[in-house]
Amino acid sequence: MSLEARRFDHAEDRVPPKFDADWSLGPSRKASVENGVRGRMLDFEARRPIIDEAEKARCVYRIVEGSVMISKMLPDGRRQIIELLGPGDVFGITTTGTHQSAAETLSPCRIAAYERALVESDRDLQLLIAERMKSQICALHDHAMLLGRKTARERVATFIIRLLPGRGGAGCRGPADPADRSAVTVSLTRQEIADYLGVTLETVSRAFSQLKREGVLSYGRHDAVTVTNVCRLCRLTGAH
Amino acid sequence: MSLEARRFDHAEDRVPPKFDADWSLGPSRKASVENGVRGRMLDFEARRPIIDEAEKARCVYRIVEGSVMISKMLPDGRRQIIELLGPGDVFGITTTGTHQSAAETLSPCRIAAYERALVESDRDLQLLIAERMKSQICALHDHAMLLGRKTARERVATFIIRLLPGRGGAGCRGPADPADRSAVTVSLTRQEIADYLGVTLETVSRAFSQLKREGVLSYGRHDAVTVTNVCRLCRLTGAH
DNA sequence: CGAAGAATTGACCGCATTCAAATGCGGTGG
DNA sequence: CCACCGCATTTGAATGCGGTCAATTCTTCG
User: Fold this and answer.
1) Strand C contact nucleotides, protein CB < 7 Å
2) Cβ within 8 Å, pair A141-B1
3) pTM for the structure as a whole
4) pLDDT at residue number B240
5) Based on the domain organization, do B140 and B176 belong to the same domain?
6) Residue B178, pLDDT score
7) For position A59, which CATH number holds?
8) Nearest protein residue to nucleotide D17, judged by CA and C1' positions
9) A27 pLDDT tier (thresholds 50, 70, 90)
10) b vs e for A44-78, b when ≥16 Cβ sit within 10 Å of the residue's Cβ?
């Protein structure tokens, strides 16, 4: 159970997003929204706020490129990172007129912003968004299991496995290659990983160190990790 | 962090659902799906499994009446209850062809089951489902915050507040009525509450007892709780 | 009334948090 | 190139919240 009340405010170095006027509203086309994107296109640098918690909800957003984190804070400063999103994922969805969580870029991003009115009038867009919501719901389910029932070690193992595209899920059945290595870039700080996994940054650091000591991971720079034994890591996630 | 590996199998007393042949497929009508419900109508008694984890996904479900819990289990028996759902909520959504979580009724239920093929061909239905997915995503976000960052006491307080319809959210600003009581029925066992909140049943029990001792709650039978002081309880949730 | 299951309560333990200090790394300017 | 600074990370030691194990009480139901 985490009680740390450390405060976070990246907000002080807030910068207005530089966005191209690349938007083509026009009459609703039947054609896929994938290609000719309606709505504004926004470009952000890494670590820029996109949505503030409690901000008035104007748009729904869809990531074209880059990664974004969605988070919430309690009044005393405890933060939980709710989702880590990548290309295709949507955010800024709310049932009230107000956003209930904050969004911030983790890497340079290209993001499509759809006015709420536009979304409401465009069924193709609604379905595009709905489709992606489904997979995000599944991810939220998995994450609830992690947050509610997994040990710190299992959380970290699960986190790293998720960074390996295509591994850990359906691809990781049985003890495949014993000496099976794979490099990943961890673009989050220990604090952010901790806030995502519902533990403290010290606990995350200890888990990384232990996995390194045990020969499951190896890394020099903190963000360039090599998973030395994918299958062993997989068995540490609690899910297998 | 929870490590208990108690096993749950309500499944042994499985009973085939008695469902009326109340379905009216017919050609897709523009009219709201709310009234003339397409798809099968199923009736369940309380505590009946609807979906098994890892079951092949045939249908998407929508609750007409009653309440349902969605859960997941780790191989060693740790269980997490992911969502508690009521009328209007949808479940059985998955991106793969397989369900990734189990569903079980908590009360007698009337549930609409839509064949996946039907859903894919019916845009009105897709939008109806999408609309509800939005609010469920928001609930999942809130729950992630609870699971990741709140203390046991705060979790229980939050849980009880959520049972009070219309309270705790937008309705609970400022110290309103000081002596403000409200009765609720807790239809979950302590074990289920625990699995929902990511703690043990003993911890839930202790939290209830403490709240009772402090005069925030009062109850004789375990499931008929009166919140003696709603606002005080609200302040214990960590969200205010 | 008695049995079975749920809930409560107590005692002890352990994992993760908390507090604190040391180390490592990247950037900046002399 | 190196010294220095700021920040993230690592590591250590102590504390405490919630988990675990176990015994008791309460409730329901046959």
Assistant:
1) 6-11, 15-20, 25-26
2) no
3) 0.86
4) 85
5) no
6) 57
7) 2.60.120.10
8) A1
9) very low
10) beeebbbbeeebebebbbbbbebbbbbbbbbeeeb
